[in-house]
Amino acid sequence: MEIAQLLDFVDQLQHEAELSLSLKTGYSELRILTSLMRSHLSGKLCTSSSLVGASGLSYGTAMRALSRIESRGLLVRRPKTASGKSFSLHPTPKLIREWQEFARRTRSLIGGLANAGSVSDGGRAEYYFGASYAGSNILPPLSVFDAKLPIRGELRLLVHADPTFMAMHTLKTQFETIFGVGIWSRALSIDRLREEILDNANARVSRYDIVACDLPWFGEMAEAGRFLPVDSMVEASELDLSDFHPVALASTRHKRRQYGIPVQTTPELLVCRRDLFEERGLKLPRTVEDTLAAAKALHDPFEGIAGVAWNAARGTPLGHSFLFVTAALGQPVLNLRWDGSAFDWENARGECYRPMFDSLEASAAADYFMELLEVSPRRILNMSWYERARCYADGKAAIAYSATLLAPLFELDEGSPACGNTEYLPHPVGLSGRPIAPVGGYALAIPSNIEPERIDAAWSALAALTSAQAIKLYIENGSLVSPRFSVSNDPEVQRISPLISIVDEMARSGVLQVWPRPPVPEIVKLIDIAGEELHDMLLGRKSAAAALQDSQNRADALMRARGHY
Question: How much is the pTM?
Answer without folding.
Answer: 0.84
